[in-house]
Write a structure and sequence with these properties.
The chain has 378 residues and is an alpha/beta fold. The chain is built from 12 helices and 14 strands. Helix 1 crosses helix 12 and helix 9 crosses helix 11. The radius of gyration is 21 Å and the shape is globular.
Length: 378
Amino acid sequence: MKILMFNNEFPPLGGGTGTVNFELFKIFQNFYNLEVDLITSASGKKKETENFSENIKIFKLPVGKKEIHHASNIELLRYTVKASFAAFKMCKQKKYDLILVWSTVPAGFPAFLLNIFRNIPYIIRIGGPDIPGFEERYKFIYKIISPVIKVIWKKAKLIITKCKTEKEMIEEINPQLQIRTIHNGIDVLKFKPGIKTVCNNLKIICSARLIKRKGQYTLIDAISNLKKKSIFIDVDFVGEGDEKNAYIKYAKAKNVLEQTVFSGYVPHEKMPEKYQNADIFVLPSYNEGMSNALLEAMACGLPVVVTDVGGTEELIDESNGFIFKAGNSNALTDILQYISENKEKLPRLGQNSEKKAENFNWNTVANDYLKIFKDLKS
């Protein structure tokens, strides 16, 4: 079976979507009856071709990348145009059975064109910002592209979501779509608990893009509130984003800069050590699908504190963490104060996180995708 994939991000570029794509390739490479070509973005100024394995090839197109974890609107547009031309050229040389699109924007449009002019069916794996209204910073853009998104969805053979909440949001827009939920996975052999070092201050890790949607302002406010109560908590913000400088200035204004570390981009293979060195994981997002970082933290045996959004209810309960309302820094303050005053409860919470994470593995995820490929071909 020959599959063409579109994904504007692939490691080291991008975030969670690229990571999922990469992890599935590690399994797909063992299925020699499956041949995959991926069209993605290049980090440099030249077109690149890479053999991921004997049956998986990656075509990287220069789109003028400026940041490793963020794509500007013009970069997304360049990817759409260049990927479309590249795909039509590739289709002259190879007959594809199916297209897998890793996000409606910007990858959906090339697949839509190939469906119209080459009659190749496609499926879409939804990224959160694909859903109109999901990302606050795109509210004006949604007004322009929402009709296009809906048309691309309608022509798809299948829509894949990461969690029940995304599925419900899409069904509100178009209840006629064929939708299936496939959760993200986790490599429990790589992400596992480590030996804890004893520290006076509670150590938090917040691994997420530094953008407003991820809600890091809420966490900075909570740390500041606790400092006023003489409760000192250290936070490691892992990730890059266009809000980074603003977050640093805000932490300084809130007098907690000395309690925060902005680690920037950390290679994925070094993330287990980051989680293992923390006491808890906090993700204060205003909106989320199913966070890869959250699964990684759980697999590393961390208690988790997250907002009531996205796939939260499918991963978190009172046995392994705490849930608070997005943007409510007072609620987060109370939770962190309780944890700092009851540290003896952390080991049990962490053990339960680890057990829950074991239910999410990449082999199961890969088999779900492979079954979809087979069903759609038959």
